Amino acid sequence: YPTFARTVPTETEITAALIALFKHFEWRKFSIIYERNVANEELFRSIKSTIEKQNMGLEVSDTHYVIINVSTVPHPFSEIERSNIKQIISDTYVSTRIYLTFGNVRLFRRILLEMGAQGLMESGDYALIYLDPDYNWLNTYHAMNNHFFRDTLLSVKQSWDDLNSQDRKVVNFSKFALAIIPTPVQLNAPEFIAFWRKANHYLSLFGVKQSSTTTSIKANRFACYLYDAVKLYASALTMVLNETANEQLSVGYDPISDGKRIIGHILGRVYRSIQGFDMHINSNGDAQGNYTLLSLQEIEPVLDMDNPDYYPLNYGLGISADFVHDFTGDLPLLRFKRDIQWPTGFAPRDEPICGFHGKMCKKGIFFKVHV
């Protein structure tokens, strides 16, 4: 529609961040494992389309993007029921170094466990990338206890106090795991705090009873998108009204009804989101998503068992980088805030030096590699 724009990024927007990550680490060959459902199929098609577009811009001599293998599991995926993840890893690990999964976080957890059980997460030769386009990040402890690594069917104490628990194994296996999520809402941003206080004030005027939950700041990403949409529309309409001459009004012109003119002040615009960071609406009216890269980082453990954030480990997923819009290209810029703590000191390769099955090294020829 020519007069339509949206502040909610599509789930497939995360694909651009993925390719930016792959370019940074020079990863071109990878295998995909995902759960079969409508949203994941759409994201898979987006990934295929994006790498095809990237390949078109490469020279013949350049290394092209290649999806080595695609494996799917039935929907809904359950960790309790028997799955074929173990078989998928067994069948693909010889010709794969970089694995990609998306959607169901329990599938990500199961793949980590299986890769770890088969010894793939200790050598430094393998990595697992996880895309979670809907996750609402609060902090490291909430993420570790309620989303990424812990089996929430168990109590927090069962997960962490047992030194041989599956959940501790998952954390240990995640040294070579990365996750891409929407950039967290900046709860301490002045504009967000002001909006929160004003919203709570108006809630009471509508008869909504105040409680401790309504006075403590929490993030609702979709409320932020709605706020941004209203503010963008109001700003664009104000511009149109200011541009409209009295002569136009006198002949019956209604600027409020001129959708094309209003949308013209929205398309291609960079605006400051109530979430605390800049966003961009492209020429098609689609919001370009902002994304964040997570990796295992050293953190301060929470040792108080009565604390909801109880987490006695000193490693957990933390924010390592963000992806920001690049006006000079079709992929976002990857900006690191903290180095990824690769145990080997460097990222895995997407293919062995001699290629899979040694096909790139002739017998009798030896290579010296200097690091």
UniProtKB/TrEMBL annotation:
The UniProt record lists the keyword Glycoprotein: yes
SUPFAM superfamilies noted in UniProt = Periplasmic binding protein-like I
| Location(s), subcellular | Membrane
Signal peptide positions are none
- Tell me the Pfam families matching this sequence: ANF_receptor (PF01094)
Sequence ranges assigned to domain Receptor ligand binding region in this UniProt record: 1-297
Q: Which GO terms describe its cellular component?
A: membrane
Give UniProt keywords alphabetically.
Answer: Glycoprotein, Membrane, Transmembrane, Transmembrane helix
Gene3D superfamilies with a match to the protein in the record: 3.40.50.2300
- InterPro entries linked: ANF_lig-bd_rcpt, mGluR, Peripla_BP_I
Q: Does the keyword Transmembrane helix apply?
A: yes
| Protein known as | ANF_receptor domain-containing protein
